[in-house]
Amino acid sequence: MKHVIVLCMVCAALSAAYSENYLVNGGQASTIRYSLTQEFNPVPGTKKVYLSFVVPGSFTSPTYTQDITDFKLTFTPLPSKKTDTQDDKGNRIITAQWDSPGTPVTVTTSFYATTRTILNAVTSQSPFPLPRDIPVSPDYLAPTALVQSDSSCIISRSKELVAGSETQFDAVQRILSWIVDHMTYVTPPRQYDALYSFVHKTGNCQNYSHLAAALMRSSGIPVRIVNGITLKEPYSIQSGPGSFTFKMGQGRHSWIEVFFPDIGWVPFDPQQTELFVSNRFIRVEVGKDNKETVNDGLVRWIQSKGVQAQPGFTETIQAAFVADSVQMSMDKQDYGPRKMLLCPKVESVFSPVSVPAAPKPAVLDTAQLQKLEYTEKVVFGNISFPRNIDFSTARSREKGQQDSFVLKKNFLVESAEYVTTRLTQYAQVFVLDKPMKLAAASLALHKFGGQGQLWLELYADDSDKPGALIAASTIKSTDGISTRQGYDWVNFNFSKDSPVLGPGQYWISLAFTGSPVINWFYTYGKSVGPVYGTRFKSVYDPAWSNALSYEFNYRVAGYLPQ
């Protein structure tokens, strides 16, 4: 029996009432002028410097294509030596060498990328389990130190998830559903491997990719890791009367490609998309895991014994959209994970699972709330983010053999929204399952400049959108907010009014006067709250009909009743 599906519900814990599976159609087409400038500042005693680059190639899949033209590497000064090789995964690697450089080494990578995401119906009847004679590298079915597909707990969970699947697509989407609901985006994590991700259920894009690859490979499904670049140009998808706006940080990213015998390699971003990636992705390097896909952006050097000074290194990405067309819409389905997952229309066999909805919290009236004694301190929210980090220089140095050193690329990106514009307002939901007396709320902010005053406004919920104003925090002058690199908590005090809140949803919105330039850091996906829980609107629009696909980093402090 064939069904057009986005995602089936596969875990007993999921509820149809909270499913956030979206059927997406339409497409994107862009022409992008891209450049990456890297500068290495050697210290006295530097003997050799090596910089490696992977030339992005053209790629075609049923849903995503890219064409790369006019690729150039510009060197200052010219390297002493340059090699151009291809590895066994098809990556073209250019390595430049400088002997005893006495001045900064600057390299600019530039090219034009034509990227397309086409979300027509995808048909796959590839059976499950897959046949053994799949025409792919055995590396994409094998365990590695980062993709522990031979771990007993990963094998056990994979078997549990895919039990009863008749098609490969059904098995893949069951695994992906579980990952979307059980992983929370946190960066930087302590480790990046699949087993760590499985146990701790947290991590960045590398963790999502490694865990997805491990669960799928343990079921005989070929997966390769992709490294590339995401661009910060936002795009919106129409959804009912409003829209969802999607935006990535501009920087390095890891995702996966899954091989289907009947349709070939197809991209997935295990954080949020199935069978496609946005055309804001530029595909660069592939391999069996993120330990193998290290050549693009790899920096190595050798210095004289005893030299203690460390060289400087910066990396700057620029991307101009010469042409950009987005015509996409999405419809929410009545099955799927609790967190947002996007997929084109798919024809395949599946068995959706329905479970009862979770009970709603009790409603307390004002008199009941005021009688309670609030003494137990509580702090909660979307709290994890990379604090006080300069994203252009954030690379860890590793000691190699003798007096050699390595700077590997990282996946730390500045994901933030400019929120002090006079034309747009932003609001973030938080959810209470118990009564609370609100004391303070903090936002992860960075001040770029300007002067003015900031405060928070607290709103009641009105049908999953900000409703009536409840209270406002004390006013904070931007003169007291540091302009140092990175993002940090800025605290807003509500103790003057100390509003008492019953169980339910509430919204905080940043308000301002003057002309401050403030960015608010956000986390990919929804780490804590519901899918619709980050809203924005024009100041001229009375309705908060538009939502953001990500969640701002916030912290709420207050007191619970004993």
Question: Can you give keywords for this protein?
Answer:
mainly beta, 3 domains, 9-stranded mixed sheet, 38 strands, disordered N terminus
Provide structural commentary:
The chain is globular and about 75 Å long. A hairpin with a 2-residue loop joins strand 13 (235-239) and strand 14 (242-246). The protein has three domains: 3-25 and 120-288 and 328-348, C8orf32 fold (Roll); 27-117 and 294-323, Immunoglobulin-like; 366-393 and 410-561, Jelly Rolls (Sandwich). With 562 residues, it is mostly beta strands. Strands 13, 14, 26, 28, 29, 30, 33, 35 and 36 form a nine-stranded mixed sheet that branches. Strands 22, 25, 27, 31, 32, 34, 37 and 38 form an eight-stranded antiparallel sheet that branches. Strands 2, 4, 5, 8, 19 and 20 form a six-stranded mixed sheet that branches. The protein is built from five helices and 38 strands. Helix 3 (194-200) packs across helix 4 (205-217). Helices cover 9% and strands 46% of the residues.
Number of strands: 38
- Based on helices, strands and strand pairing, what is the structural class? mainly beta
CATH architecture call of the largest domain? Roll
Beta-strand residue fraction? over 45%
Number of domains: 3
End-to-end CA span: 54 Å
Mean pLDDT: 92
Largest sheet: 9 strands, mixed
Q: So what's the CATH class of the largest domain?
A: Alpha Beta
Total helices: the number is: 5
